[in-house]
């Protein structure tokens, strides 16, 4: 009987090690400058990302700008960090004559090798989203243009989208994607 009791206690202790999980904490406490080795998961517990997630569109003339935003968990497992956090990421499309026989996708902004998706953002209040965006629609010889993205929910299913240039500006170089429009959630 004593051997069986020892075996059960040993098994319970061993299983408890396999069932350890990272501590989940509110994303609002996330501090990217900290040397965090906590193993914590900084989660959007308050649902501040939710109003932004999904497909958004703006059509001007025959050109449609379509944005897809989704929540991603970003692991920071590289030394000296050991934590993960929620972020809003996304991609976009410029489409000519969307839904018509002669529809033409002018540009797709999806992934960049070193940064992941072309849109990386967060929201602390569910009304304003701030982040960065890469305009990969610029001709190849100029690479992409990096900008500061701001998206403000102005009414149910409507948002104001603005991009402000960051970094060095090359003469004659402008964004290809829209920089100041109203988007409608689909």
In short:
This protein is mainly beta.
Round the Cα radius of gyration to an integer and report it.
22 Å
Q: What order do the helices and strands follow?
A: HEEEEEEEEEEEEE
- Number of continuous helical runs: 1
Shape: elongated
User: How much helix, percentage-wise, in residues?
Assistant: under 10%
Word description of this protein:
InterPro entries: DUF6705. Keywords: Signal. Residues 4-132 form the DUF6705 domain. This is DUF6705 domain-containing protein. Residues 1-22 form the signal peptide. With 186 residues, the chain is mainly beta. The chain has one domain (23-185). Helix content is 9%, strand content 47%. It has 1 helix and 13 strands, in the order αβββββββββββββ. The protein has an 8-stranded antiparallel barrel with strand order 3-4-5-9-10-11-12-13. Strand 9 (119-122) and strand 10 (128-135) form a beta hairpin. The N and C termini lie far apart (65 Å). The mean pLDDT is 80.
Annotation keywords:
single chain, 186 residues, mainly beta, 8-stranded antiparallel β-barrel, two-stranded antiparallel ribbon, 47% strand
Summarize the helices and strands and which ones pair or pack.
Layout: H1 2-18, E1 24-26, E2 41-43, E3 54-60, E4 63-76, E5 83-96, E6 104-109, E7 111-112, E8 116-117, E9 119-122, E10 128-135, E11 145-155, E12 158-165, E13 180-185
Parallel strand pairs: 1-2, 2-5
Antiparallel strand pairs: 3-4, 3-13, 4-5, 5-6, 5-9, 7-8, 9-10, 10-11, 11-12, 12-13
